Amino acid sequence: MQTEDFAADAALFARMRAMWQDVDPVPADLVDRMVATVAVEDLSREYALLTLVEASQLAAVRGEADTATLQFSDGTTSVLVHVTVAEDGSRRIDGWVDAAALAIRLRQGEREWSTEAGEHGRFAFENVPPGVCRLRLVVRAADDELREFQTPQFEV
Questions:
Q1: Residues 28 and 69 placed together within one structural domain of the fold
Q2: Residues pairing with 95 in the sheet
Q3: Total number of domains constituting the chain
């Protein structure tokens, strides 16, 4: 009885598929359009990453400013950090994260700063004294789950 039911279902689904292919066929260029859409989805984030990396290389070559560019990743989330020294000796930390960041904290000893990521994952901390720091982010993963991302300690 079960084999007959499966055969009847398969025949019904085949007729429905044929009917929908006649009534509303899949556009011929749909696959190409979807591949192009997915390929350019994160273009602005990639541009931001390239801009930060390029700026750090140019600054090191053309000026005497003390800069550093660091990248951290756990395989699912990546964070790029660009550290520059201000005239007063404090540090400015510009960052970029490729995940939806809900909270971003910079911890240095007992001090802690908090900020939010902009539209393209950019964030910044100003007037950070020299020393060892760590970033902690709460990000929304692709499966909509919240998780914490933490960098190793780094010196600014």
A1: no
A2: 81, 123
A3: 2
Mean pLDDT by 10 residues, the chain (156 residues): 78 90 85 71 58 50 65 88 92 93 94 92 94 94 86 91
Examine the domain organization and report whether 16 and 72 are in the same domain: no
pTM metric for this prediction: 0.57
- State both tokens at 47: 């541009």
Residue 68 burial (CB count, 10 A): 16
| CA-wise closest residue to 71 among 41, 95, 99 | 95
Task: Verify that 116 and 78 share a domain, yes or no.
Answer: yes
Q: How far apart are CA 67 and CA 72, in angstroms?
A: 17
143 shares a domain with 88: yes
Query: Which H/E stretch holds residue 98?
Result: none
Alpha carbon distance 124, 105 (integer Å)? 10
Q: Are residues 48 and 77 in the same domain?
A: yes
Q: Where do the DSSP E strands lie in the chain? A: 67-73, 78-85, 91-97, 100-108, 111-115, 122-128, 132-140, 146-150, 154-155
Domain that holds residue 10: 2-39
